[in-house]
Amino acid sequence: DILGSFFAEIGYSVLRKAAMVRRLPLAFENKRMEINWIVTNALLQFGQEFQPSLLEHSGHTSIDAINYALVSSHIQGFSWTARAMSELELDEVASMFQLPLTTYTKSELAPGITQETPSRSPLAPYIEELHRVIRESGQALLRAGYADFAEVVLRHARPGRSDPPSAWSVVAALAEACPAFDDRATYVQPASPSPSPSGAVATATAATSAEADLCTPDSPAPSTHTPVQCLFHRKAQLGV
Fold first, then answer.
1. What residues contact residue 219 under an 8 Å CB cut-off, 6+ apart?
2. Model-level pTM?
3. Band of the pLDDT at 114, cuts 50, 70, 90?
């Protein structure tokens, strides 16, 4: 079974952790606001390579920064609409996530006289990546005619469509509307039943459906296909 092999390869515990939707004690005026908050949270779940720098220079993880930004913006009444996201400035993102763009080094010029010299913060690359993803996502939603992420989800999950709503159709719609969600990877099941030295391969490079057999709940890969390539989106945090 292709999915069973894939799950076994990366580990069920990893999948369970990735698919866990973090529920915070927040009150939403309606379901649309809550859906938009959840999808925005999923959008921002990236940047593992920045974790060592975050822990060293802020004492927090990216999850801490994301939770702070989303909770505080919700309390302050900031709406993560496509328009608002597309207009966020870099310094606004830094303030929202409580991360510094600039650090200051003190030096003593004379006894009792010090000077602070500004320099680029080691966390600036992470802040810039957050800013890029947020801005580009907002712009992409506007180009696609969506007011926010919730509109994408509700439009493709609403009963009455010609195709029955499914988790796959919702995630595929998000990936089509927003480049940041189009983080596909290809899982290749070895043709031989005995594992290769490197095991099954899961690459994080983008792939199109033309480059791999698309493996979805609605169209499982035929068992006669060996090796089988399964194209999937890594945004499991959606919990859809």
1. none
2. 0.67
3. confident
